[in-house]
Amino acid sequence: MLASEAGTGSAVDISAMDIVLWGVLPYVMVVVLVGGLLWRYRYDQFGWTTRSSQLYESRLLRIASPLFHFGLLAVIAGHFFGLVIPMAWTQAAGMSQEFYHFNALLVGGIAGVGTLGGILLLIYRRRTTGPVFMATTKNDKTMYVVLTAAIVFGLWTTLASVFEGEHGHNYRETVAPWFRSLFIFQPDIAAMAAAPFSFHLHTLVGMALFVIWPFTRLVHAFTAPFHYLFRPYIVYRSRDRDTGGAGAKGTAGAVGARSSTVAARRGWSAVGTRDRDTKNR
Amino acid sequence: MRVMAQMGMVMNLDKCIGCHTCSVTCKQAWTNRAGTEYVWFNNVETRPGQGYPRRYEDQEKWHGGWVLNKRGKLVLKAGGRVKKLLGIFASPVQPELKDYYEPWTYDYKTLVDAPLGDDFPVARPKSLITGEDTKITWSANWDDDLGGSAEHGHLDPIVEKVRRESEDKIKFAYEQTFMFYLPRICEHCLNPSCMASCPSGAIYKRVEDGIVLVDQDKCRGWRQCVTGCPYKKIYFNHKTGKAEKCTFCYPRVEVGLPTVCSETCVGRLRYLGLFLYDADAVTAAAAVTDPQELYDAQMDVLLDPNDPAVQTDARAQGIPEDWIDAARRSPVYALAKVYKVALPLHPEYRTMPMVWYVPPLSPVVDLLRDQGHDGEDAGNLFGAIDALRIPVEYLAELFTAGDADRVAAVLRKLAAMRSYMRGISMGNDPDDSIPEAVGMDGQSMYEMYRLMAIAKYEERYVIPKAHVEQAHDLEEMGCSLDFEGGPGMQDSSPFGEASGRPVPVAVETFNALRDRQTSGSAPGEATLRGRVNLLNWDGTGAPPGLFPERAQSPEKAQSPETALPGAPTDPTPAPGSRPGDQP
After folding, report:
1. A101 is in an annotated binding site
2. ipTM of this complex
3. I need a surface site. Which of A53, B136, B170, B242 has the fewest CB within 10 A?
């Protein structure tokens, strides 16, 4: 299941580190991501939310949030084209390498800069708007660091290839085959090992992002409400058919704490700002 | 036809004294939590006034409710499904905290802790959002009793509209002012636009009683409902990131108790009861072209519970017999459709609201009295209602989409009732020309008076209990191992103390019962984690933890507190002793 000999034929030596990073880590990441998401979906529906801060501030958010999110959607689409669609296919479709590269840089660059600008503006807003900063948890801060790092390093790989021009690294011969080989459980470690450091760094930070994903507010992305396009406007639900605990609690938080030894349920903590003091950050 | 039951409320605005008891008790019951400091599921507004949040009725700004598109189809004013999803990353017209108000508390501790000095210590206002010193500039009822209306009165969207149409006739000069209170809760609409706006489908209407609730587990915090609700009665809990709203106190209503706001209402102005309505007719009724006909359309959706055909259909839909009976005795149905004195709030939003209002006659009566006229004479009252166009037009903008004649008709009924009953209580012969002038007879007028003025508790609140024959199904649904502390669950998780679910009672009881059967002693602390389970207690002995530990030392045992006559001094009670034996 490790390095397939029928890789790209690259003459790079595969070290033990390469095997761990490009042969083992991706699968660990997937296990944590999928397992974490399932676990959280099962046990933390109440915590599964965008935790929007628009109530506190919306002037900056109105610009920054769509800029970041739409930019990110374009970036994800770009990753799909770059990683999933083999070079042979685009060439068979008559798309020259130069044309592909130019487009990837142009569209990817714009999307990346938009995403980065968006998140920088969002971080600026989060830091400078008092209530928003107070509502920021340690968890959020960690997530922002990893997310921003992933974007910055990703943009670096793109911009680097702009300056390198013709001689730039073609990730469609290294990273992309490795990415696809992961799905057939024959990781092409040699191909990935041949990629430059910037790609290694971006990939590692990206994997770190996916590892922490289920445990941060980013989970809201996995419940993107596409079903809104298809569901009826008016929703009837029987009291008797409510699912599980919802039958008893239904709305506005949940049933109260069952005894004083159990801490108050989320959403039912006392009014005040004690829970927002510095030790919580 | 699909007959459904709907819990509804009617508020008789003539009786509201603006004491805010409903708001306060509601807040104590539901929103005294972190994240909902600024939230008032029930609020009382002084009208004319801006309301809470400020100018919420200005739908050109807030885009709440439904509108008809060019093809006459009902669409959300804030946009269709695709537009909503595209605007999800930053809700385009969501009110900010400053549109409600910044909640605050006071630094009371300083009053106690301040060192001795020449000056009195002051409890400074502190923001409940930032914890910093704050300046109080607005609240949920800042313009109470027309406070500041000379400055802010023109900001009331209804005043703006009436002024536009009547060339600046509403003056805020004190002597010319009229005023009334408008308590507001969620309307529990038949055609709720908040529900239609929710991308997650987390907001739902209960089939049994029509109460609109937010499923806190399904809500993902997309915030579109806040925009969607034209009454701005969906609030964003900034701590949990979930939408919350008035629950119609469903845990109370389910057991036949009135809502907290109704129960504690000093003026006894709230009525609770059932409507039967045709759910299949709602969308068509909400799509009537002329906004002023929406009231009639809404009336047509409400079904007559005394009609045998309706009753048959209701039974076929599984509505229990006692609910049909409650619908027949429903005070809200009587006020809305039989006497036609209760009107929906802003029918032009096309949401088919189910909290109704009896418009206040008091501005008219007050004015007559202030001018030295007999405020209870039918002729005077009828004349004044026709002459006082401004209050009537204002009320019409609130309750009938601007149809002043309809409001005037309701006010005339109230005036007739006042005048007719005054005659009777003065010992005169009933003047049946008065009820006839408003299309009623003496008998129905007296019954209306009984319901509105005497307003007995049992007549104001006709609340059928929820049918909990299937209660055991409700109690312990799902896998019995999926509880906090069960397999796969940690006592505290990285997401906070509320992750997971509470221990189902049946599991706890099962464990306690098994312990008892196998160990020979009463269930102990180990299985109950500090709690006491009395479900298995047969009266023999006392389970540990039922009473506080008593001191073991002889001096303590002799002390006056514990050495009560007849009380056993031994800390372990004798077998057979009852809890009442303990001091």
Report:
1. no
2. 0.81
3. B136
